[in-house]
Specification:
Keywords: Lyase. It catalyses: a 4-saturated-(3S)-3-hydroxyacyl-CoA = a (3E)-enoyl-CoA + H2O; a (3S)-3-hydroxyacyl-CoA = a (2E)-enoyl-CoA + H2O. One of its GO terms (molecular function) is enoyl-CoA hydratase activity. It is a single chain. This protein has 263 residues and is α/β, with parallel strands linked by helices. It has two domains: 198 residues, Alpha-Beta Complex (2-enoyl-CoA Hydratase, Chain A, domain 1), CATH 3.90.226.10; 47 residues. It contains eleven helices and nine strands. Strands 1-2-3-5-7 form a five-stranded mixed sheet, with helices on both faces. β1 and β2 form a beta hairpin. The protein is globular and about 60 Å long.
């Protein structure tokens, strides 16, 4: 059976990390498959959102597979290659033109937490526990955690979490802004994440992609350059048939019927 399960319902694709015996640890092959699945979903213009979760009740993902890491030994070049591949996979997910929602059902440690941080946003079960414990093993987060966590929670909080390996409860993660959604009961996790995905899927698909594009620009460029990007994307949205339908539907007090974007 595959280590990554895919299921589609309407315009939402759900991807499940499926290595329950290993707490859904991330192998290089699994990360590559996950990246490929997200990219394939984004290339399908009838897909409007992606949900990523973990198999079983214990873990979203307990992190990178240490069996793979340990065999690298002192091979510096190979270690660079493995870390770069993991970073590239999460960066591709982070930059996906459709929203990627992490539904975190348990442990999200190391690379698992880094995957959460690379998602568009996360929904957490009350059982969720997040952390970057690498320093205890003489390692550091290598899939973008040292860069994304400070941006998410601030430098001091991030430094404390990474240096001590302290875990965030779901409630504390919500307080810090790691998730925008209050934690939900375990049995409500996937229904809640799917409902949010379906809400987004009902929005204008070109508008959703434009918002993600503009928000991505906000991470990497000065404000003035970001505003220029926003101006162009907003103007294209106004001039599109999608906005014509959206405004007409609002005026006529009906639900809009947005076409799938053209390639």
């Amino acid at each position: 059976m595959s280590d990554l399960l895919a299921q589609r319902s309407g315009a939402v694709v759900t991807l499940t990390l499926h290595r329950p015996a290993a707490l859904n640890a991330l192998t290089g092959a699994l990360l590559a498959d996950l990246r490929r699945a997200v990219e394939e979903a984004a290339d399908d213009r009838t897909v409007r959102a992606v949900v990523i979760t973990g198999s079983g009740e214990k873990a979203f993902s307990a992190g990178a597979d240490l069996n793979e890491i340990s065999v690298l030994g002192s091979d510096l070049d190979k270690a660079r290659e493995v870390m770069a591949a993991g970073q590239d996979a999460l960066r591709a997910i982070e930059r996906a033109p459709v929203p990627v929602i992490a539904a975190v059902n348990g442990l999200a440690l190391g690379g698992g937490f880094e995957l959460v941080l690379a998602s568009t946003f996360a929904v957490l079960s009350t059982r969720a526990s997040l952390g970057l414990p690498e320093a205890a093993l003489g390692l550091i987060p290598g899939y973008g955690g040292t860069q994304r966590l400070p941006r998410a929670v601030g430098h001091r909080v991030a430094a404390h979490l990474m240096l001590t390996g302290a875990r965030l409860s779901a409630d504390r993660a919500y307080e810090l802004g790691v998730t925008p959604v209050p934690p939900v009961a375990p049995e409500e996790l996937l229904p809640t994440a799917t409902s949010i995905a379906e809400t987004i899927a009902a929005r204008g698909p070109l508008a959703v992609r434009a918002i993600l594009h503009a928000a991505e620009a906000a991470r990497d460029v000065p404000l003035e350059e970001g505003l220029t990007t926003e101006t162009e994307l907003a103007a294209r949205a106004i001039a599109s048939p999608e906005s014509t339908e959206g405004v007409a539907a609002f005026t006529e007090r009906r639900s809009p019927v947005f076409p799938d974007p053209e390639d």
